[in-house]
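Q: Joint fold for the lines below.
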Amino acid sequence: MGKTWKRHLEGYLFIGPWFIGFLVFMLIPAGWSLYLAFTDFSFLKPPVWTGTENVRKMLDSDVFWKSLRITSVYALLSVPLHLGTALLAAMALNVKIRGIGFYRTVFYLPAFVSSSIGVAIMWKMIFSDSGVVNALLTGIGLDRVKFFNSPDNALYTLVGINAWVLGTAMLIFLAGLQQIPRELYESAKVDGAGAVRRFRSITLPLLTPVILFNLILGIINAMQVFTNGFVITRGGPAQSTYFYVLYLYEEAFKFFRMGYASLLAWVLFLIVLLLTLLTLRSSSAWVFYETEMKGGKR
Amino acid sequence: MRSSSFRSAAATVALYVVLSLLSLLFVFPLYWLVVSSFKPLSAIFRIPFEWWPVDWTFKHYKDGWRFMGSVTFARVYLNTAYVTIVSVVATVFTSTLVAFGFARLRFLGKNVLFVALLATMMLPTQVTLVPTFLIFDYLNLIDTYAALYIGAFFGGGAFYIFLIRQFIMGLPFDLDESARLDGASTFRIYWSIILPLCSPVLITIVILSFTWTYNDFFTPLIFLSSIEKFTVPVAINTFLDEAGTGKVGVAIAMTTLSVVPLLAVFFAAQRRFMQGIATTGLKG
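A: Joint structure:
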């Protein structure tokens, strides 16, 4: 009796650091912000319960819908582009030739430095109206493009530069590709399957679990996009890159509408959760697990 | 036979060409950053592009390093080093403790708690942001370094714990059993047996938590207000705030400088680190 009690206690002591942090910095704040979501709270005065007032305000707000639409367009474009380029890069690097390690390192490098805001500043200048990309474009006789300075282009430019950081997804794809048995390709070749056929019938199906993993990570990251919109475009021009989290940040820390901002945070969580669940749900239709191939043996 | 080997040689050459061209695309922005930091302001945005600086200048570095008032970039780097080192050490210690608990010990409610741990990975930081600000305010942590590293003392993040736990699960149980028969305490098993075997996954954790803390922009943006406490990302951000075009060169120079520690860590550990990242996707 005394011994089992001691065993449980020991377990709690080991996980204690996490558990205290979980309570103090996760569970209590999450519950608290759920409460704040239904209050008027400006940090200076105590929160005042306003019921569904914030919800009504949110649904009536043009900016809310606008930022949600901008973020969704961003996710819808950047996730497929990101995963597509990462997969292509992984396939190009999945060969045994001399020096391939060098290329893998170079392809991965941007992902490693990309979370630095210095890199966001770098993009701002490279794609500025008189930046190097425009210098190169005019050099080959093309017109200049207002990459960030035009409401029509800014969002797409942000989508484009996000493809530069494909490294993490690429490495995960590469590991997935290396798990596919070579014999499958050999025998398909003997049966006369061409490169496209081999890709569609072997590579793609066997890679679907990894695609699912990258897809979910990609959706979560894209819906929470912040730094590039904040540093490069400050949400503009004409609010064309006013991402959801940027909106949330300004509501909370610029206008100090913290109750309303808490509601926005919870809505974001619910949207991300819903998207993740839908993706997982859909996965039974398109994700192929190897156990199925072995006749469901387990 | 000969034509097929000729064809495969041609394909290999083509592959090298394609990979090299793509590599240029990946490296060019960083190349631009470095060369521009040594050009006079008038040459940075010159058309056509100067591939190599015609007139070299170190002015941007000198001006940028002075930073603001009595606060120089030396101070900014010291701040960053302090916060980063505390974070990484605390993360390694607490995340392994917790991971060991989840991987090796049996206690009531373990599975429920582990699911809770995984669920926190889904919760966007924005949800806890406002109350965390209030809690930090109550604990007098606003505008302190502690606001930036306190999380590291509480496991450092669910993802790190999860990674290490998966790794420990793969170590043979006999190790613990025989040590326990020899009378070793649980802490001793953790410290002297399991932890030394964790070094491959710990390299990944050290690098991930280093880059995360070093690059963290959002946390100091919200919790720091005194310039003398600024870390590198928020310090660089001020060049953009006050900027105007006059400070462009300074922003480029300080950005270049800020990437150097990242590159140093990357090249020191890239081989093992890239293996670590690659396997995360397959266990999930």
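Q: Anything notable?
A: Chain A has one domain: 53-289. The first strand of chain A starts at residue 39 and ends at 40.
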